[in-house]
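Re: Re: token formats

Sure, here are both.
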Amino acid sequence: MRGVRQLLIAAVALLCLHGAPPAAAEYGLKDLSLTFTDEGGNPVLAAGSHPFEMTTTFGVETEIFFEGSEEREVTTGQTKDLIVQLPPGFAGDPFAVPQCSGPDFATIDKTRSQPACSSDSAIGVVGVQAEFGSVPAGKFTPGSYTYAPVYNLVPPPGVAAEFGFLVLNVPVTVDIVVSQTRPYYLEARLKNASQFVFLYGSKLTLWGDPANPLHDPIRGQCLDAVNSSGELVSLGSCPFGGEEDKPFITLPRSCQGPLQALFSADSWEEPENVVSDTATSPALEDCDELGFDPGIAVDTTSTAAESPSGLDFEIEVDDPNLTDPDERAGSDIERVLTTLPEGVTTNPSVASGLSACSKAQYEESEKLAFDPAAGCPQSSKIGSVEITTPLLQETLRGSIYVARQRENEFGSLLALYMVIRNERLGILIKQAIEITPDPSTGRLSARVEEIPQLPFSRFHLHFREGPRAPLITPQECGSYEVAADLYPYANPTQPVRRTATIEVSSGPGGSACAAPSNERGFSAGTLDPRAGSYSPFVLEISRPDGSQHLSSISTTLPEGMLGRLAGIPYCSEAQIARAAARSGDGLGALELADPSCPAASGVGGVTVASGAGPSPLHVDGRAYLGGPYKGAPLSLLIVTPAIAGPFDLGVVVVRTALQVDETTAQITAVSDPIPTILHGLPLDVRSVAIQMDRPNFTLNPTSCEPKSISAQVTSTLGQTASLSQYYQARDCGALGFKPKLSLRMKGGVKRTAHPALKTTLTYPSGAYANIARAVVTLPAAHIIDNAHIGNPCTRVQFREGACPPKSVLGTATATSPLLDEPLSGPVYFRSNGGEHPLPDIVADLHGQIHVVLVGNVDSMRVNREVSRIRTTFARVPDAPVSKFTLSLFGGKRGLLVNKANVCKVPRRAIVTFVAQNNKRLEATPKVANKGCKGKKRRR
């Protein structure tokens, strides 16, 4: 059709020898008007009604031009493009009457200036003031028009509707498109008007109800289009022969302010100079009388509890009055606020492989509407949209994209972009949707405002289903209510509430309905359990779908499984506070780029799986060694940048107190509560896997006795599950056992003297089993002086750190390759509650950790000798110690007293060591004494 028009223009151009004289005045518009009238010509102001006629007029500014003595009134420019933006909410039905095909419109009966279109396709008349030729004659009669019928044409691709008419036998087409910017009004476009038709003005009348019999005398072929008297002349009657009587025009359903049509035009002489002016019609009335009865339907794609699910959300508008010429259409929907049930939350699994659409990409859709490489990326798509309207014969389809966090229309954490595309109709509609999660429960609300005033009967949103669907269903079976408040354009302050029900009818995977269980999965151990060797330690705690959410974890390692602290700096309290301060959304990336804790304090990693279904999202974090916390000597910092696909929820810091049993050195890790929700988004943690993979950090026991790794997992409902994993080191028999003990007395050697005693245990490094039990029996010449015992420290006093000074017997120091500094502290005589005849010797060792070494004191006979003092350390921690020194005071504070001159009696002790791998070593080391040096023992 456009090709025919261009051929006609080219043919006329070949006949022309010169062009129009340039205009002296600037090109401009005048006499603009927009009116809606009934059959009697009275104004129609009822919102949502179908007027009898709609008329727009415009004129082009003119000037007086003199050619010799001849005076001519000519336009100030030759119109090239004319665009009319109709008021928002103005609607037209391109299928109200049949459409005239391009070939029929191009077949022109020049004797009558009529195309070969059927009269049934006529939708109005147009009056034109124009002259044809290369130079305007300037002899038109002001106010007089040449009339022609206007036909509804088959639109070309990219155009929603098109109508056409003839001007001086030149075809003119006007495209009707939906604007691609808010507020999405209809736009009439006359592009590249003929350069050989000088347009002074026009008066276009479109029929609100083309089938009305009152239009029969001037319908299509019945209009005497060649009459130039300024009056419409009929050639007869052309009744409408179509099947339906449908309105062609529907007025807006809003009464907010006057109706305005913006006219914009430019000229061939200055196409870059666009002039604009507005035609105004009075505001519409009686909006409170318009009907408004939309309905909603909502359903999840899964009916199983706590399962990944999509969502179908539908708004239905049954408005038969929209297509009834005798009735007023109902109001459009201006705003929708929807709240999903509590328990329907976001699914972290959706973030796997997901990207987000930036604001620039969203806006780019306007420039490159149908370029698949432009606009929002496909990886950000999570759903689709369908819109059905009675004004079109096909469904409009589009996509739903995830908007970039904070960089969206609302500056919100969550938002969606809806983009509807129809290349054939040239329709591109965009709508932003704000999603607001409740910060405490994760309950989701959606807000859509300024919905385009385009009538629809069905609006369907579909969010994808599958293992990475965007939502999770509630944990328990039942009916859950969805509420939506819908606001009409006609009465924006009077919303209607509609509800729908979501059904959860089975447990996860189709199982029977049941309350959330406290079921847990647990695995733990070292990758290489060879005794006495270093190996990465791994632990994983998980929960299945349908179980209670994790709250906190307490784990106890087997005796002898230790961490090498030497050479590892702590993540300081200031650095920990720095990590915790990054909890705001968007700060996770900062933690990745600039970790709060130093790398040197790192001991491993953590992987958290979040989200329902078989494909949870995995997020990695780091584990750092920290200092004392909540009474424990050490702590573990789990720092996890919560970055899930395009979302950055900040940094999650979970601190775990590392308690060390003071008797066995057994480690128990007690975590702080695990966050369950961040910024309104439930984390839905499915598993926590820790990998302590720092080289030479986790040390296996040197005992191969069967042991276990135990855990206590507390749920958000306060229930605790006790878990256990079998553990046993291997190859203990390959470990050597070479402890060496030396004893030295210092002080008086005569009877009744009180010498000081220093015992030193040394142990080689390498593949050796640790000591499990040690028994030291002193020579018979040394006994305990009861007069120097004083008041032993009670256990209560010991726990409170309030032992009396006289209970202190000496000092002890232990050096371990696992620690930066030796452990040291006082040695007490401590009561044992009657478990043994004498109080215990207790070494209270402090440093990075606190260890209490208890020796039970009693007496024994060796052959026919008198009783000897024996100290038994029955339970020694399975920990490597390179040197251990125990020193007892002498003199007035000395516990030991000589029963004889020690230089004149045997001075050998009896020592028995038992290894963690059950190997034994017995020795009789000589007790050295400087006071006996150089003296010979009498025979």
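Second one below.
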Amino acid sequence: MPKHIGIVACSAEGAALCYRTICTEAPAVMGHHAHPEVTMHTHCLSEYMECVYRDDWQSVAELMLSSACKLAKAGAEFLICPDNTIHRAFGLVGPRSPLPWLHIVEEVAAEAQRRGLRKLAVIGTKYTMEGPVYPEKLSACGIAYLMPDAEERACIDDIIMDELVNGIFAAASRQYMQQVIGRLSKEGCDAVVLGCTEIPLLIDDRVSPLPTLDSTRILARAAIKEALQ
């Protein structure tokens, strides 16, 4: 039997995309209508954001661990979190977790290596773009990276937190993201990491000036693979 996947969710749109990806792509390898068992738990997004706004990553970790314990009791055998931002607390979570995890940024870095990519643009919330997780994980794999400038980071964060997490996908916001990605492509990036799980709902390979690394779907596909091992 495939392993039972536990999803530690944070924001609804990205978590829903991750869940849908597991359920719609697994049949290609498991058979018609087949996918691993999946259980998802999420605390209120406002609880997470109150902790993030005050730079309290220990409290973020406690919320993640609360979900992890509930999912373990529900029978999950390993965990994923389709939210890049709260991976800043991952180092506080892993040692106390009741179950093993896949790490979203490690999976993105592995996919970049598989595709032979050398320099990545990274877009996401300001906490992701200004935080240590992507720099540490990409550097460990020998992959260079470039973040948007301060003004761009602020604008992208506003788009994510005011629009995308609320299911709003505006053409003007898509155009702005395209402009930022286009500028980064001129600085030598050979792909862009969609490092917020809602961004793939706004930007994809069809409209991006650079090839995309969709962190949401990369994590979902890694979860399918892990479930079948």
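The first strand starts at residue 5 and ends at 9. The first helix runs from residue 12 to 25.
- S.
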